[in-house]
Amino acid sequence: MTRAILSLAAMLLAVPAQAQAPASPSAATVEGKATVLSLEHRMLLRCSAAFALMAHRQAEGDQAALAYPPLQQRGQEFFVRASVQVIDEAGLDRAAISAALTEEALALQEGEALEQVMPACLAALESAGL
């Protein structure tokens, strides 16, 4: 599990530096102030985490994961684009986006959650043209 979270963190590092800072000081995440994400933002983060976790499993040779389309490149591109979108639109800082993605990744590792979300996330991947 820890290696999968590290893989997720590595993808976060690929987010362009200009997108890692909030769009304006008024949109910055202030310590102790919760930022409410829209349903769309939560879906983008959940699918980003799902792709990172599934790509990690594929790289490890997990047979169930290999049944899905290869997600290393396409999933990473989705991850980066989605992270930039959420950072820009929700005004999250790097720590907040990292925490949100980690929370999603941890939730997806419960039971069959990852497998249950994959069909919707794959549809989102196709809709994004990736």
Q: Number of domains in the coordinates?
A: 1
- Give the low-confidence spans: 12-32
What is the 3D shape?
globular
Fraction in helix? 55-70%
Biggest beta sheet attributes: none
SSE order = HHHHHHH
The total count of helices amounts to 7
Assess the beta-strand content as a share of residues: under 5%
**Average pLDDT:** 79
The rounded Rg comes to 14 Å
Q: What keywords describe this structure?
A:
single chain, 7 helices, mainly alpha, 130 residues, 69% helix
Report on the structure:
The chain is an all-alpha fold and 130 residues long. The chain has one domain (2-12, 47-127). The protein is 69% helix and 0% strand. The chain is built from seven helices and no strands. The protein has helices at 2-13, 17-20, 39-59, 63-66, 72-90, 94-108, 113-127. The longest helix is centred in the middle third of the chain and has 21 residues, at 39-59. It starts with a helix and ends with a helix. Residues 12-32 have low confidence and may be disordered.
